[in-house]
Every structure is written in structure tokens, then in C-alpha cells.
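Sync notes, pocket subgroup
Present: LS, DG
LS reminded everyone that the earlier model was apo-only. Rerun requested with 1HE included. Inputs:
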Amino acid sequence: MSKTMTDTYENLLVDRQPDGVWVVTLSRPAKRNALDAATIEELVRLFSGAQVAGARAIVLAAAGDHFCAGLDLVEHHRADRTPAEFWQICLRWHEAFNKMEYGGVPVIAALKGAVVGGGLELASAAHIRVADATTYFALPEGQRGLFTGGGATIRVADLIGKSRLVDMMLTGRVYKGQEAVDLGLAQYLTDGSSLEQALAIARRCAQNLPLTNFAICSGVSHMQNMSSLDAAYAEACIAGVVNTQAAARERLAAFADKSGPRIRSE
Ligand code: 1HE
């Protein structure tokens, strides 16, 4: 059994289901799942080991009414950190979120209530975000005399563009509902439970071959960091590996002999 399988966590609940879908629940509801330094370390540990431990897809969920209230402001206040100390804290946030985004396992965030500040930075490192009727997005750092430190300037800008990001940071503007989806803050909006929908999406993703998901959930992000010329080269290289994998032959054979599924609009 790998180390991750035996790991225990204080601030995360990890439910490893038999089909390889893991449900990871942020579990500090009394603090609205605010991210203290210990939780960030647990996220680093979890997302560093998930692919090797056999996770096929991960639902990132939250206990209580709110997904995540961002940086633990009380811990930050009490610790009275130096610039160098908070620089290091932010690097650990980046480590955690980069392990999510580049780790090769699909991460589907089941959002509800507040997805604010560092909570939005966390959500934006997931590959798929599902919002429900209660979900709202904001970057209140500006009003608190702070600045984003967990990747909003990169990932939230990727989702909604620089000018909307700057507006959110300057004014604390809140987005929710269909408008949030139309802007790109989430890909799905459900009238029901975001957890149920995220689970259904995760189960669908988990049916893909692991190497294919690994390429999608690390390669695309890496390629976004490259010039178009280099990204095209890297895409060809990844396709060379993925599209010739032995495990894909069965699926290709099923298409060729007409037993495999056809893509229909309904
Ligand atoms: C917290 C935090 C937190 C709640 N750090 N403890 N993020 C923010 O500015 C959001 C700050 N939080 C809020 O605006 C509200 O708490 C919520 C809208 C999320 C929820 O409101 P509500 O009325 O349900 O809860 P509450 O009464 O405000 O808080 C309940 C408890 O959670 C209370 O603790 P208690 O011990 O007094 O019961 C709060 O102190 C605690 N709590 N949010 C610490 N964020 C790498 S840089 C990232 C920059 C940032 O993320 S800045 C943070 C932005």
C-alpha cells in the first residue's frame, strides 16, 4: 500500500471510492474552510501523491455552507508574519495548487456558498468547477488591505481576463449564477447539489484511460505556458505517446468493428 493510502489528515476528509474516484472534503466548516498553513500542507501532500496512489478523478468538496473563505485571516493576523515568511507561505500555496493543476488527475470542484479570495484561487486550480444556486465568487483582498497570493493573477485572469480580474480586486465585485458561468468562473451551474453533479462528472472522467487523463490534466496546462511553436511540438509528442498506448487499442478496435459508441447530440 502506498504512503498516500495510509496518510491521515486533520483538515481534509478523504473518501477513496472503489472506482478510483476520491472525494476530498475541506473540513474546517466552523472556520468556513479558511486555509491555514496546516491545511495547505495537507493539500500539497494529498495532491502530490494522488496520481501514484491510483486516484482516477478527485472531487474537491467542502463541509458546511461555504466552499472556502480563503486565507485564514485570524492565523495571519496572530502570526504577524514578516515579508519573507509570507513569501514562503505563498510558495506553499503555489505548490499545492500546482500539484492540483499539473498532477495528472482530473480535479472537479463542487462549489457552494463563498468561493472567495484564496478560495477562488483554490477553485481555479481545479480542472472543472460546478456551482450551485448558493455559490458566489469574489476577491475581497483589496478591501482588507491585502493582495492575492495564491495564483489569482494567473488562473483567475485565465478564466475571466485581466480587466475583470482587476475590477474584482479593486471593487470586491461579486459574481454568481449564470453570469459567473458565462464569464468562465465555473463550467456548470446546477439547481441541485454541486457535489452530486461533480461526482457524476468525476465518474465519467474516471472511465478515461489514466494516461489520457494524465496528458489532459498536465499537458494542456504546460502547453499554455509555451510558445505556440513549442506547444505544437509538445502536443505532437504527447499524442505520440498517448495515442499509441496499448490500452487504447481495445477502444479503437471497438470503433473499427462498429461495437464502440458513436458520438450523437442526444
Ligand atoms: C475565518 C475566515 C477567514 C471565516 N479566516 N477565519 N477572504 C475573506 O475576506 C472572507 C472572510 N470571511 C467572510 O467574509 C465570511 O466569514 C464568510 C462570508 C465566508 C462567511 O460568513 P458567515 O457569516 O457564515 O461566518 P462568520 O461569522 O464571518 O465566520 C464564522 C467563523 O469562521 C468565525 O470564526 P469564530 O471562531 O469567530 O466562530 C470567523 O472568524 C471564521 N472565518 N472566514 C479565518 N478567511 C495567499 S493570499 C490569499 C488572500 C486571501 O484569501 S484574503 C481572505 C479573503
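DG: The longest strand covers residues 21-26.
LS: The two ends are 42 Å apart (CA to CA).
Action: DG to write up.
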